[in-house]
């Protein structure tokens, strides 16, 4: 029988199938640990380190969305945070778990789709996203913001690291309409300060700026072509 769209969830799932990279894509992406992917280094984002060192963030419960191989989760755990790190790829999580074991760091890793993840309300002091937002299609963006709002404590912080428009590693400047006309995210959507302010307008913007490029090897990580922001609920 031909599939019928009878609920909003059916419509969202259909659009997901048009645009979202499947789990197998991300598993394949993380299989070869030796390929030259900048964020395969085991160093935390420079902006995240700044938030901790400047006292914006204090020890508490953290949710990391799209943790990949665990470099930011590991840093936060070492700083005394209680970390819950989620990713779609079990291959990425296996690498992250190996890093955590080697560092003797306790992190709760979970393989899950963000939009199917049961989360406690008003539970986390900090939610971090380093590379998830720019892979989320426009039809899921409102739900993404609602999930962050729901899971974050009042007064808690949310921070994001995503493609800037026309960045060296991605960052399409196409409109939301064009995403569906072309049936593609063109490798990832690009954001500007103005776009982030509109999307997260229910939060207090603490800082939005370009990510600082950090020459590797280094104890911290940063790339041109990304934009970072931290917000308070």
TrEMBL record:
Where does the record place the Methyltransferase domain? 62-156
One GO MF annotation is: methyltransferase activity
The record's listing under Gene3D superfamilies reads:
Vaccinia Virus protein VP39 (3.40.50.150)
Database matches in SUPFAM superfamilies: S-adenosyl-L-methionine-dependent methyltransferases
Keywords linked to the UniProt accession? Methyltransferase, S-adenosyl-L-methionine, Transferase
Q: What is its EC number?
A: 2.1.-.-
Question: Pfam families in the record, alphabetically?
Answer: Methyltransf_25
Which leading EC class covers this enzyme?
A: transferase
Q: GO:BP terms for this protein?
A: methylation
Annotated protein name in UniProt:
Class I SAM-dependent methyltransferase
- From what organism does this protein derive? Lysinibacillus louembei
């Amino acid at each position: 029988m031909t599939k019928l769209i009878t609920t909003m969830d059916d419509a969202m799932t259909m659009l997901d199938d048009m645009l979202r990279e499947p789990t197998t894509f991300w598993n394949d992406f993380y299989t070869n640990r030796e390929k030259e992917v900048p964020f395969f280094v085991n160093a935390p984002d420079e902006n995240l380190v700044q938030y901790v060192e400047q006292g914006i963030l204090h020890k508490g419960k953290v949710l990391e969305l799209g943790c990949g191989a665990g470099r930011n989760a590991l840093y936060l755990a070492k700083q005394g945070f209680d970390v819950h790190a989620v990713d779609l790829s079990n291959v990425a999580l296996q690498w992250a778990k190996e890093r955590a074991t080697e560092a003797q760091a306790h992190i709760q890793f979970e393989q899950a789709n963000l939009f199917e993840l049961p989360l406690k309300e008003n539970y986390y002091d900090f939610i971090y996203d380093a590379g998830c937002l720019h892979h989320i299609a426009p039809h899921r963006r409102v739900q993404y913001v609602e999930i962050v709002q729901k899971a974050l404590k009042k007064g808690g912080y949310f921070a994001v690291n995503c493609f800037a428009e026309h960045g060296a590693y991605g960052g399409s400047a196409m409109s939301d309409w064009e995403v569906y006309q072309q049936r593609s995210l063109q490798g990832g959507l690009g954001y500007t300060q103005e776009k982030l302010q509109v999307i997260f307008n229910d939060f207090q913007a603490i800082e939005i700026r370009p990510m600082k490029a950090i020459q590797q090897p280094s104890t911290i990580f940063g790339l041109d072509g990304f934009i970072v922001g931290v917000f308070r609920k």
